[in-house]
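Archive entry. Fields below.
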Amino acid sequence: MKASERNPASENTVNIPDTRVLRLRPVHLRKLAAIAEVKGKVLFSKNFIIMPAFSLGFTLLMKVIYGAAAQGEFNTNVYALTLGVLMNICMEGVYCTAAALAEEKEKNTLRTLMTSSVNGLEFFIGSLIPVVLMSTVVNVLCIFIAGFDMGILQWAAFLAVTVACSAISAVIGMIFGIYTKTQVSAGTITTPALLILMMIPLFRGFNDTLEMISEFLFTGIIYNAISNINSSLPVTDVKGIIILAAEFILSVIVFLALYRKNGFER
Amino acid sequence: MNQPYISIRHLSKKFSKDFVLKDVNAELQKGEILGFLGPSGAGKTTTIKILTGQLRPTSGEAEVLGLPCNRIDETIYEQIGIVTDVSGVYERMSVYDNLKYFARLLNVPLKEIDPLLKRIGLYEHRKKPASRLSKGQTQRLILARAVLHEPKILFLDEPTSGLDPSTALEVHKMLLELKNEGMSIFLTTHNMEEATKLCDHVALLNEGVIVEYGTPQEICLKYNKVKKYKVQLTDGTKHFLVQSPEASDQIAQWLCSGIIETIHSCEPTLETVFLEVTGRELQ
Ligand SMILES: Nc1ncnc2c1ncn2[C@@H]1O[C@H](COP(=O)(O)OP(=O)(O)OP(=O)(O)O)[C@@H](O)[C@H]1O
Ligand SMILES: [Mg+2]
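PREDICTED_STRUCTURE:
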């Protein structure tokens, strides 16, 4: 009888339907495809396309600046590529995911979706796919812009590592997205995280603590991967793979814990 | 009788300390329009949110299509359509693409979109981004999206608030058409004319309490304690008579001499009933 006191904690919040609990529900490929397509188009709209365009432009700029500074004495392409890829993975993954989720809340379309038979898992996966795809395409373009030569195996390993990192940062973007209600606040709230994720590997040489953190951070793994490719070493090792897997799982768990409380809204 | 599409029994909802719904009971039968009529803050939106699984009730039960409202899932969402006061459209997407998106999500054949666009009068605007539609056009698009999959129940939260009278009339026409096609509708409104015109049953909601429930006619007749008549005679004079033996004689006499141009009984409206019961205005 008493459907009542079951959920006292969230009394004051406007809950998303029960579908918010990412129970094992069938994920319909038809819905997933529709969501991914619409979400993908959003990434090409003017508020979002700036991010990949910026990463590509920055890679090119760095290649030119570093190249001129080194005057051909040593290969500087690795610096340009590292910056471009780190920037892209963080901005496309974290910012664009968070901002796209915030926009759906701002325009009240998220609630409409969730009450039109889309479940949380479908929305989650459908939102991640285009971000990871876009991020991967930009990473590949960065390689060409930076003028980096790689063998087939290196390509495969590079793609695997960058796809994993893009997925992690997209899930982190989703976590931030839960806390933001507008696109503007998505920008504000994700900026510190973006800077930390990017700067730690870049400044790892400054002190041991940073170096240590960087070793355990997915952006640090990317950093290592690119310098390894540059020195013809294996792209990553078992430790790197374990860290990537662990950080992906961890970010999904954090997301789920937050999502269970209030759905995509807070 | 068949199982009702919606049944609400002893439903209450409390936000922190205050009850915003208190022991609400109502039923929506198949093919009917049920209206919750009440002023701002009465608890209309809260009721819709509970019925559509977006809020949990504090106590009591509500069933939608036989399923308790706290267990509403995708299978129910495939059978209901929802228009809330904050329903959104994808502004960057065209009118057509907005409907196409939901058609794909709800497994509706895409060929059904064009006829629907024609029906809501947005066919010429189908390529426009939704951000460039007028308020009334946006409302029609939202309505079209909600009925795209031919839901069994349509939930409407103040479907015409903020619309100009002629657009509101269009929406009314569409709702009656949908009803004639067999759709059941649950709507909220603070407009008593809308409730009288559209609803088969009305619940008058005041501060979370249903103060009257029935067909609009029943409710009005119940408050028709003092019967009044308005008579216009052929000579142009107007007379206002309160039921009494003298008044009856007078009317009979006019009738016999055939000089009555028009004669009306003056029943109370839902608005006057609401005022009488709660001492509050609706708007
Ligand atoms: N999430 C919430 N937390 C606390 N109080 C709420 C919440 N949502 C609604 N209320 C309160 O519940 C009451 C009923 O609100 P509701 O939105 O259901 O009214 P309504 O009848 O839809 O009014 P309107 O005609 O203005 O839309 C109001 O007093 C409102 O302040
Ligand atoms: Mg309301």
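CURATOR_NOTE: Chain A has one domain: 27-261.
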